[in-house]
Specification:
This protein is about 20% helix and about 35% strand. The protein is an alpha+beta fold and about 200 residues long.
């Protein structure tokens, strides 16, 4: 059983003092090796935040995978809370914020998330024919990509190197310092003094 470590900072969501706890798990992920999953949770309101960290120090990276085969759809995707996801063919971009959660999924799972965004946009812009049409075209392209009748490119960038696509077909490029600096990080920062061990040390 993984111990919960109390965090002395109040919950970022409900501001309740003494309700925030941290847990850390270790995973072995193909192509990435040892990774650490850290979760913060509030016992008062249920707020939760998850992040993944690669154990070794990594360079800022961009992974690019063109989805063309059944194997591409099941390629594992590790997206830390500092990862930016783009699908250029449909104009999709998701940059990290302080509320972003890390996750491990596959390419099809990422497309599920993108599809939900476009479906929401279609319903939200029901009275705007132009914006609704853009959302519908995005949904059609995603559906075609799932059937392998059209290609989509998944781009995953991370200034800290904690995200990636585990596929031999994915192209990995180290970002320049300028490119890395232009990316959002989505960081939540806690002072070391805010975190105490289970025995209070």
């Amino acid at each position: 059983m993984v111990a919960e470590i109390p965090v002395q900072s109040p919950c970022p969501a409900c501001k309740a003092p003494g309700s925030l706890f941290m847990r850390t798990f270790e995973h072995d992920v193909a192509y990435f090796g040892r990774t650490l999953e850290t979760s913060l949770s509030c016992h008062a309101c249920g707020w939760r935040h998850v992040d993944f960290f690669v154990a070794e120090q990594k360079e800022p990276v961009r992974y690019t995978l063109t989805v063309e085969t059944p194997e591409d759809l099941v390629a594992r995707v590790v997206r830390s809370n500092s990862g930016t996801i783009r699908v250029p063919e449909i104009g999709f971009s998701a940059e990290p914020t302080a509320k972003s959660e890390a996750y491990v999924s596959n390419v099809e799972g990422v497309l599920d998330r993108v599809e939900m965004v476009f479906d929401f946009a279609r319903r939200f812009h029901a009275d705007d024919p132009e914006k609704r049409a853009i959302a519908e075209r995005g949904l059609e392209r995603i559906a075609a990509a799932r059937r392998l009748e059209a290609t989509l490119t998944l781009v995953l960038e991370d200034p800290f190197g904690n995200s990636g696509i585990a596929s031999e077909r994915a192209k990995r490029v180290v970002l320049t310092p300028e490119e890395a600096a232009s990316l959002e990080t989505g960081l939540i920062v806690f002072d070391k003094a805010d975190i105490t061990s289970p025995d209070g040390a």
